[in-house]
Amino acid sequence: MSEEKTKTVVSKILETKDITTCDATAQMINKARRDGVELCFDRAASMKPCPIGAQSACCKHCSMGPCRMNSNDPYGKVGVCGATIDTIMARNFGRMVATGTAAHTDHGMAMLDLFREVVNGQNHDFEIKDPEKVRSVAASIDIPVEGRSLKDIANDLYAELERTYTQVTGEIPFAKRVPPKTLETWRKLGIVPRGAMREIMELMHRTAIGVDQDYENITKQCSRTALADGWGGSMVSTEISDILYGTPCPVVADVNMGVLKENQVNIIIHGHEPNLFESVIASVNSPTLIAAAKAAGADGINLVGMCCSGAEMMSRHGIPHAGNFTSTEAVLVTGAVDAMGVDIQCIKQGLAKVAECYKTPLFTTNTRCKIEGVEHIEFSDHDPKACTDEIVIKAITRFKTRSLPVEIPNIVNPGVHGFSYEYINYMLGGSFRGSYTPLNENIINGRIRGVAGVVGCTNPRVKQDYVHVELVKELIKNDVLVLQTGCSQIALAKAGLCTPEAACLAGPGLSEVCETVGMPPVLGLGSCVDNSRILIAASEMVRTGGLGNCLADLPVAGAAPEWMSEKAIAIGQYFVASGVYTVFGVTFPIVEETKFHKLLFGGLEQQGLGKWGHAVDPHEMAKMMIAHIDKKRKALGIDKTRDRVLLDMADRRQIEAA
Ligand code: NFS
């Protein structure tokens, strides 16, 4: 059978119910198939992953190879240079960490570039929207704030944060936010990061042929580099975004493809940096452009987000969100998207073809991310509206000349998003005594069993959203409070779990807390770089007291159930190095029972850090995470308190009936 025919057959046997639990995406997959348009799900079905590569048992770092190892007999042979399976896997893993870290830190640097120009007075298109945050971030890294002007503090803050990138020796500024015991462990292990540029450079160097050939030593540099992401580049991205655009607080927002409006000019922005998106918000509110849209016969202009910048804008401004990573091509199948503008990261090249099929103008906007054959309209911080006005104008033209039938899935899921670290502080403690004490108390008394961060991508190799949703349902049922970011947050929003009403799905302790505070059992924090908010919240839990001395003592766990990106590996490694048990789904690039596997999945914990876990099934994942949380509760001596409040639903009903 020809390859083309095989492809068709494989695609046909995959029914939408096996591909996604997102009904809107399923409807669009069916439409795309009727229209003869291929989406990522079908490409995944026709592309068999290389089994050697999937286990990271292949080295292509020089031209003596590529060398393929035998995962059934991993120590049976070595590469041409003599590299062992452990060296090969550690090198590959290191390069994933380096790439993921580079992505987040480059994003952070772009934010910092803009901040510098705003502070210097070289840019008047943007401004500091949250002066209080300038002061609090500055104070957190020992920059004097009392009696000083905002400009002076901001200048010092810029100079300090630049070191996150350029610091040649010594520790990055946000190391000051790390709980002292955790920092002590890092210092002992020699993994406190210097500037990200240095760490990424060294990791790339050490993973080249003939350099570092000790998997433990490579892993150390993986941790150091990843920490330069979590406590460096990602944290800078989040903090500067809050400073320039406002710190999120809860806001109601709609999610799912039903946010598109047939009678409006629909514009989707998809990517990761908020600068483009913020400027589009200004453009779609321009009276001239609104008038132009109306003159074209539209009721208005409808701005919608996707993926991470979408999650960030939803959290900060309540902008509607159309779906997560694996839905970005599917949304174009509606025929209702009049323009899609993208910046950087998680932009599938496949978008170009799908956009062409549905006559949707697709624009790249960032010099770091162009797509062959796709029109590029460069976005500049210095004249932002030149780009974004043009996107809006082109969208209006497309609306006027819409020639294909429009089919918008009629599904919208409202929810509450925008739970920043600062808001959680306020929400639990009130404005006069804002603190994490109530959270810690509820963990100690067992109403809340622990906290889980469930984050990351969707991946066409597994049923879209299913693993996220099942895992989170299981966790909250067991009184584990869930913090979310990125595409995972969107999956749960679509499942209706980002509403206070979802508290009824939580166990008795967690639901009591949610009902008292009026919060959902699942708190959406924003985009993937906003995972840094989880690190800050966890550090505050340690500082507040009663839950141990370091991050590794906390009854917390993390998961990326449907991950696909190298950025996810960097995030996982910085959580592990920070002390968190982190479980990944889908697949893990490793040969089990090798020395490198034992180090990542156990050895690091013995060094005082966290450890990795892997499971495909969401219920298995939940079991592993809850067992870890219980282990930490036991070590803290708070396991007994929990026994007193542990009631299942049957017990509860009995009490209510009595
Ligand atoms: Ni995170 Fe965001 Fe989504 Fe994954 Fe991609 S959009 S940075 S990498 S796929 S969560």
What does this 3D model show about the protein?
The protein is α/β, with parallel strands linked by helices and 658 residues long. It has four domains: 3-51, no CATH class; 85-245, Up-down Bundle (Substrate Binding Domain Of Dnak, Chain:A, Domain 2), CATH 1.20.1270.30; 257-400, Rossmann fold; 415-657, Rossmann fold (3-Layer(aba) Sandwich), CATH 3.40.50. It is 50% helix and 9% strand. It has 27 helices and 15 strands. Helix 24 links the parallel strand 14 and strand 15. Helix 6 (85-120) crosses helix 23 and helix 11 crosses helix 23 (566-578). The chain binds FE(4)-NI(1)-S(5) cluster (NFS).
Would you identify the regions where 5 or more consecutive residues have pLDDT less than 50?
1-11
If strands are numbered along the chain, what order do they take across the biggest sheet?
A: 12-11-10-13-14-15
From the 3D structure, determine the CATH topology of the largest domain.
Rossmann fold
Report the radius of gyration as a whole number of Å.
24 Å
Please work out how many helical segments DSSP would assign.
Answer: 27
Which ligands accompany this protein?
FE(4)-NI(1)-S(5) cluster
